[in-house]
Amino acid sequence: MDNELYQAVLMQHSKQPRNFGPLEGATHSADGHNALCGDEISVALRIEGDTVSDAKFTGSACAICTASASIMTGEVKGLTCDAVQTLAGNFRLLVKDGTGPDLPKKLEVLSGVHQFPQRVKCAVLPWETLVSAMKSPVS
Amino acid sequence: MALNTSTIREQFPFLKETVNGHPLIYLDNAASSQKPARVISRMSRFLESEYANVHRGIHLLSERATAAYEHARTNVAKLLNAPREEEVVFTRGTTEAVNLVANTWGKENIRSGDTILLTEMEHHSNLLPWLKLARDAGAKVDFVPMLENGASLDIEAAKRLLAAGPKLFAFVHVPNTLGLENPVVDLCQMAAESGTTTFLDAAQSVGHQPVDVRKLGCDFLACSSHKMCGPSGIGALWGRHELLATMPPWQYGGEMVDRAYYDKPATFREPPARFEAGTPPILEAAGWAEAIAFLNETGLDAIREHSVSLASLAAGRLQQIEGLRVFGPKIRQSGIVTFSIEGVHAHDVAFFANERGLALRAGHHCAQPLMRKLGSPSSSRASFYLYNQPSDVDALVGILQEAVAFFR
């Protein structure tokens, strides 16, 4: 039921998201939306050399999407773009069928999502937007 | 006369379903309605003993199937009080009916510099085909604005925009979000004075209240079976015969053709056959005819009164929840209540409700520009129909209060 999906940690991230707001000096950004339920999210990054040095997000989204974005922006800071790509792929495996290689502990709070197929998109949307942001330099 | 809800509920098998041990409460009727047992058994009986292709077999089953298919046309024509049965064209649904007119009447009549008038309340289905037509033709599109919070159309603006003489005015009868009914008679009269052709999206009104094309005064009307206790996959375009008669085909193939040749252009049949290329939704027509008989016996005035009173009760009680905003007019005019809750996203609301057996719709309701204009890209919707009851409203209010406490 609700508790398997909306774990306490997840609800904290959703009610008080970290890294929420515009990012000064962003070098890359992208918008993502879920046409099904109306989630809208923007991810802004500062990429220095090969490394994501900062990440923030804005938008209006459900608890799952907001919490996922909050945790994600914390986890990717300091990683290389390649490492972020790999992490995004592994995260997708985790929320789609609950499998996948080891992931940072904080991301596991979203593992319950795989039991609710209609919510997978909510959890993955921030990551999809992040991957597309890495390819989209701010002009 | 008020509806006997318990007798009606006995006729809907879906009400036996449960979710996590909770009885299923279905408040997603604006998306699609549930089917009574007699529609379900009519469709299986048809498949068992009446099914074949229509209008072509010289054999018993084809005769039976043709009779059932044409009986459905008669029922739809009567439901709409259409002057002639041949004015009813079967389509896959409302969306296909809009596309049919845009691709035939529209292509013949909309020229560069012409204006198509729409409203800000349209569902994507009565918006995107016209926008595409306008782009292709080089025509201009205007929108009748709505008043604050989607309370109604701005009738003064409609008057002004119609006086300018647009070629076409396509608009919705009962919007799928706002809980209101547009004043179709007045709008069609204003349009007629300017020589403007009118197209009415009646997907949410036909089968939910009496709809009489002669009284309304529109030129075209579109509706869907699945919103009125019939199966999905069939709907109808109604059009004035003199308009249908001038329209070219839009899909080509069997059934719609009169004479075909290898080396010269084919000739086509009269409406409605001209617009029904290929094997039509035969089974669905049989089911729809039964649904219409069921609704007529139940009484369309009583159905409307029932749905509107449940929606009014729900809107009134929901507004007492702090931070909850109901869109549309103060007094409900249809069975639809769309709302947003500050600090609680609609997708979470719908998920939370489903866990407790309550089916709500969340999202933009296929009306993205409208919801953007209302400042709410994502909202929740409860829509009522004949099998809903006052305790469904209690459940809705209780579950939303619980959701607010959980998420906020």
Outline:
The complex is a heterodimer of chains A (139) and B (408). Chain A has 139 residues and is of the alpha+beta class. Chain A has 5 helices and 3 strands, in the order ααβββααα.
What structural class do helix, strand and pairing data of chain B support? alpha/beta
Strand order of the largest sheet of chain A: 1-2-3
Q: Approximately how much helix is present in the residues of chain B?
A: 40-55%
Enumerate the spans of chain A where pLDDT stays under 50 for 5 or more consecutive residues: none
Order of helices and strands of chain A: HHEEEHHH
Mean pLDDT rating of chain B: 96
- Identify the CATH class of chain A: Alpha Beta
Describe this structure in words.
The complex is a heterodimer of chains A (139) and B (408). With 139 residues, chain A is α+β, with helices and mostly antiparallel strands. Chain A has one domain: Sufe protein. Chain: A. In chain A, 42% of the residues lie in helices and 19% in strands. Chain A has 5 helices and 3 strands, in the order ααβββααα. In chain A, strands 1-2-3 form a 3-stranded antiparallel β-sheet, covered by helices on one side. In chain A, a hairpin with a 2-residue loop joins strand 2 and strand 3 (51-60). The longest helix of chain A is centred in the middle third of the chain and has 17 residues, at 81-97. Chain A is globular, with a radius of gyration of 14 Å. The relative contact order of chain A is 0.22. Chain B is globular. By secondary structure, chain B is an alpha/beta fold. Chain B has helices at 5-10, 37-49, 60-80, 94-109, 128-137, 155-163, 184-193, 213-216, 241-246, 282-298, 300-318, 346-355, 368-373, 390-407, and strands at 18-19, 22-23, 25-26, 88-91, 115-119, 140-144, 168-172, 197-201, 220-224, 235-239, 257-259, 267-268, 324-326, 336-341, 358-359, 361-363, 379-383. Chain B has 2 domains: 5-31 and 300-407, Aspartate Aminotransferase, domain 1; 41-296, 3-Layer(aba) Sandwich (Aspartate Aminotransferase, domain 2). In chain B, the strands form 5 sheets. In chain B, strands 4-10-9-8-7-5-6 form a 7-stranded mixed β-sheet, with helices on both faces. Chain B has a 4-stranded antiparallel β-sheet with strand order 13-14-17-16, covered by helices on one side. Chain B has a two-stranded antiparallel ribbon with strand order 1-2. Chain B is built from 14 helices and 17 strands. In chain B, strand 8 (197-201), helix 8 (213-216) and strand 9 (220-224) form a beta-alpha-beta unit. The chains are: A alpha+beta (139), B alpha/beta (408). The A-B interface holds A 1-2, 5-6, 11, 14-15, 35-40, 60-66, 116, 118-119, 122 and B 20, 345-348, 350-352, 355, 362-364, 371, 377-379, 406-408.
